[in-house]
């Protein structure tokens, strides 16, 4: 009898949705720290593993998005960096478990979805995501949950359809004894994901994630643009001041000064996610102008002696 396919899962979603508790349910133990409020406990990516009878389950619990303790733009930049680091540690992912809280789907939730699609690629929801709704014990509908989702409207209905109606309601409450409700739910979710991903290629760092690199870099740039431009302005103004001294004395700029100009130009090019859009064109032009001035010094004297 052949072994089931080993499964690597990424838990993603907004802070306070129950990602860590869901990970614990799947691993059948308290591996991931759980926050007692809406502040994120998962500041870094955490990894958990469970070896089953015929397959190994690996789970990565990622930091929550829209952390209440963090500035929104700073949170975006940090999230991009974390996900880029994560994909180097975990270059192949079988499925993303997108964790939401049942009963609510806000504008902020919709923004998180769009941000994740920018980070991981426009098709990652459609091709690689399974929706997991926590706090299932709070569901008070009079019809089966899947039927309730099918009759929903708005942004949640769009998300439900986009992931091809892959959804699971979980409570994450109780102990981890064999056949307990919590363990049974966790095993059922694993089985559903395994059945869905059987014979399908994983999401990879070198293909899907790399394909979203430009959009991801632009996202981080837009979030950090104020800081980037502030630092570049400061660096250029300092070099302009130093250049003025060389010009007034008509002396050749030092090698160290020229190196600083070349390094700054390289930093500007590296910081611009898409040179075609010329996000930092003004700073690049100013730096090139300084380089040309440095190359032109010292200027020859205009005075001449008549014999």
Widest β-sheet, arrangement of strands: 2-3-1-5-6-7
Distance between the termini: 105 Å
* Uncertain parts: none
Radius of gyration: 27 Å
CA-based shape: elongated
**Classification by helices and strands:** alpha/beta
Total number of helical segments?
11
- Summed over residues and divided by their number, the pLDDT gives a mean of 90
Strand percentage lies at: 5-15%
Secondary-structure element pattern, one letter each: EHEEHEEHHEHHEHEHHHH
Number of strands: 8
Helical content stands at: 40-55%
Summary, kept brief:
By secondary structure, the chain is of the alpha/beta class. It has helices at 19-27, 72-89, 107-120, 124-128, 145-150, 154-162, 181-197, 205-211, 213-249, 255-271, 281-296; strands at residues 7-13, 46-51, 56-61, 92-93, 95-101, 129-134, 167-169, 203-204. 50% of the residues lie in helices and 13% in strands.
Task: Please describe what this structure looks like.
- The protein has 307 residues and is an alpha/beta fold.
- It is built from 11 helices and 8 strands.
- It has helices at residues 19-27, 72-89, 107-120, 124-128, 145-150, 154-162, 181-197, 205-211, 213-249, 255-271, 281-296; strands at 7-13, 46-51, 56-61, 92-93, 95-101, 129-134, 167-169, 203-204.
- The strands form 2 sheets. The chain has a 6-stranded mixed beta sheet. Strands 4-8 form a two-stranded antiparallel sheet.
- β2 and β3 (56-61) form a beta hairpin.
- The chain is elongated, with a radius of gyration of 27 Å.
- The model has no long low-confidence stretch (mean pLDDT 90).
């Amino acid at each position: 009898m052949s072994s089931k396919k080993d499964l690597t899962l990424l838990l993603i979603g907004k802070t306070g949705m129950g990602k860590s508790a869901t990970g614990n349910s799947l691993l059948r133990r308290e591996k991931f720290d759980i926050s007692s409020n809406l502040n994120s406990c998962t500041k870094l990516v955490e990894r958990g593993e469970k070896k089953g009878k015929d397959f190994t389950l690996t789970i990565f619990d990622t930091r929550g998005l829209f952390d209440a303790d963090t500035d929104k733009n700073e949170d975006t930049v940090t999230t991009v960096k974390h996900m880029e680091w994560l994909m180097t540690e975990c270059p192949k992912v079988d499925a993303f478990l997108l964790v939401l809280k049942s009963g609510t789907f806000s504008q902020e939730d919709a923004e998180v979805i769009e941000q994740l699609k920018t980070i991981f690629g426009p098709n990652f929801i459609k091709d690689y995501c399974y929706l997991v709704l926590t706090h299932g014990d709070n569901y008070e509908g009079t019809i089966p949950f899947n039927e309730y989702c099918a009759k929903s409207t708005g942004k949640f209905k769009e998300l439900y359809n986009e992931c091809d109606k892959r959804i699971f309601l979980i409570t994450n409450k109780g102990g981890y004894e064999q056949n307990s409700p919590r363990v049974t739910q966790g095993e059922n979710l694993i089985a559903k994901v395994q059945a869905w991903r059987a014979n399908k290629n994983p999401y990879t760092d070198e293909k899907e994630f790399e394909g979203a690199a430009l959009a991801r870099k632009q996202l981080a740039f837009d979030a950090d643009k104020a800081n980037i431009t502030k630092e570049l302005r400061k660096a250029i103004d300092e070099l302009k001041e130093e250049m003025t001294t060389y010009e007034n004395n008509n002396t050749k700029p030092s090698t160290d000064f020229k190196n600083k100009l070349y390094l700054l130009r390289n930093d500007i090019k590296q910081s611009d996610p898409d040179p075609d859009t010329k996000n930092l064109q003004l700073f690049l032009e100013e730096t090139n102008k300084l380089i040309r001035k440095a190359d032109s010094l010292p200027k020859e004297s205009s005075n001449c002696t008549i014999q």
